[in-house]
Amino acid sequence: MKYVYYLQSIPHPNQHYIGLTSDVDARLASHNAGQSPHTSKYRPWKILTYHAFLDEAKAAAFEKYLKTGSGRAFRKKHF
């Protein structure tokens, strides 16, 4: 199972991060421990939502979509 997750920085609420993982809790702990250079300066993070996929290719495609302009509009409307 693959998960597409959507994070929000607690001290900087306008900062968000989208990622793909097979273990959401471990990945959140990794972000909050500062192990990702892209997210370390905005930690701690909280999970806003995550979506499970059986097909890894579909999960990767959804993650990629959420990072596009229309994906941002989708996030604002639905998340």
TrEMBL record:
Check the record and name the InterPro entries matching this protein. GIY-YIG_endonuc, GIY-YIG_endonuc_sf
Fetch the CDD domains from UniProt. GIY-YIG_SLX1_like (cd10449)
Pfam families given in the database record: GIY-YIG (PF01541)
Taking every annotated instance into account, which residue ranges of this chain make up the domain GIY-YIG? Answer: 1-76
Q: What is the protein name stated in its UniProt record?
A: Excinuclease ABC subunit C
Q: Which organism is it from?
A: Geomonas paludis
Q: Which lineage ranks, top first, belong to the organism behind this chain? A: Bacteria, Pseudomonadati, Thermodesulfobacteriota, Desulfuromonadia, Geobacterales
